[in-house]
Amino acid sequence: MKKQQLKLTTSKMPGETMQQFTVWQLYCLTGSFDRLLTAWEGLNQGYTKITPELEGLKNRLGNIVTRKTIALWSKKFSWVKRTDLKITEDIDQIRTEAKRFEKERKFKIIKAFRKALDTKLKKLDSGEEVTVAELKQLWEMTRTEMGLVTDRSAVSVTGEQRLLTPEEEAEGKALDALIKSFHGRKRKEAGSDGN
User: What DSSP line would sit under 170-186, residue for residue?
Assistant: First the structure.
């Protein structure tokens, strides 16, 4: 009869004691059995300053166990795979938090822009002068804060570059010749007018 595989989770698993779960959490932080044992010994021997949080951790860890016991727990509760799952969950949480932060930041920037713009409009309504330079400065500050380009000199590439076809190359040469001819005539006309 095959042993039923437990569903991996980053919370306490069925059959896992609080001590085993806490040791796994410490393993996630330390990354190896050796560093886990070193940290555990340090907590038990008072090498670290005991804060209320560390005191609670020390109590949940209980008495230190052997490396062999840790290896058995690791195998039984799939610590390596659970740690990978925890890292994935942590990364997803960080991304979600970063997106939320970015949305809030943009909202605050837009709100500040609108407030400043409303102030400029009130100045106009009261008969005061508002220059284009002031409005441009306000616009540029907003674009800069949002990480956007503020001038027209930025190059925008919309698609992949490719080699010109022979037809396009011929059309380009014909267009260049036409432009040169046009400017040549304009120079001649300008030269004949100046005589």
Answer: HHHHHHHHHHHHHHHHH
